[in-house]
Amino acid sequence: MLVHSRTGRWTAWALCAVLFLPLFALPLLVIVAASFSTHWSGAFPSGPTAEHYASAVRGESLQALTTSLVTAVTASVLALTTGTWAALAAAALRRRGRRVVDGLFMLPVAVPSVVVGLAVLVAFSQPPVLLNGTRWIVILAHTVLVTAFAYQSVSAAILRLDPMYEQAAASLGAGPAYVLLRVRLPLLLPSLNAAAGLCFALSMGELSATMMLYPPDWMPLPVLVFTATDRGSLFTGSALAVVLMTTTLLVLLAVSRIRTEASYR
User: Residue 169: which residues within 8 A CB-CB, separation 6 or more?
Assistant: First the structure.
């Protein structure tokens, strides 16, 4: 820690506990407790049960989890590819050109996600590109929403790259494609992995735009959580939320492991 005195460290830890526990840890603990309960009429839940998890990992719930994973992975790959390409292209532009590209890619973040969902719905509900009613319109909306984060992450990493490596490779006769594939992208690998994890997490939890677009046969898990709680099934919804949270954390841990290994290269 940056605080060197013992009193300062204890104060910092106490302040962290006061802010972290009520704002972040306590709500998550309440959801976990509710997922194992059948009643909550007093200060604490009652009727411990694992029934909610038995139904949360089969049937419609399992299909919704699979849908979320496929959507998040596909959207993350598309967003990472598009964002990386745009960041590399923008790095070669002048300052005004970079500002224009930055503004275009940050526009979906500057407006509510429900506006993005409506825009995608209106744009792709008529020929020649008719995606309404298919899974692809959901994947496209998720890609639009998370590409900005991939672009910003890679752009920041490009600014920190030492041009000496590229210049050395070029001076030895390496072509632009070789420099890109064997020098720049390997140096960007930790940032690419971090961007992939961020895109995946954001896509797994996206709800507003998804509610406007999802077809009946492509319902992601956040929509099922909202549907369950809207019907009054709070304990079932809590179990689904814990499954969603656990799955996302496991994937992020795997991505962080890849990022850690990449940082040693």
Answer: 178, 179, 182, 183
Contact in structure between 244 and 222 (CB atoms under 8 Å): yes
Rg (CA), the chain: 22
Please give the pLDDT value at position 4: 64
Distance in angstroms (rounded) separating the CA atoms of residues 174 and 165:
11
Predicted TM-score (pTM) of this structure: 0.85
pLDDT by residue (tens digit) across 48-104?
888 888 888 888 999 999 999 999 999 999 999 999 999 988 888 888 888 888 888
Q: What is the pLDDT of residues 129-151, one digit of tens each?
A: 899 989 999 999 999 999 999 99
And the tokens for 122?
């209106």
What does the alpha-carbon distance between residue 237 and residue 150 come to, in Å, rounded to a whole number? 30
Top-confidence range, 44-48, 57-61, 117-121, 160-164: 117-121
The total of other beta-carbon atoms located within 10 Å of residue 79's CB is 27
CA 203 to chain centre: 5
Domain boundaries, the chain: 56-263
- Secondary structure of residue 40 in the 3-state scheme: coil
> What backbone torsions phi and psi does residue 146 show, to the nearest 5 degrees?
-100, -10
How many whole angstroms separate alpha carbon 101 and alpha carbon 81? 16
For 84, the token pair is: 């990386």
pLDDT on residue 262: 47
The pair of structure tokens assigned to 33 is 């407790």
Give the number of other CB atoms < 10 A from CB of residue 124.
Answer: 19
- Spatial neighbors of 157 by CB under 8 A, at least 6 apart, are 188, 190, 191
- Let me know if domain 56-263 sits in CATH 3.20.20.70: no
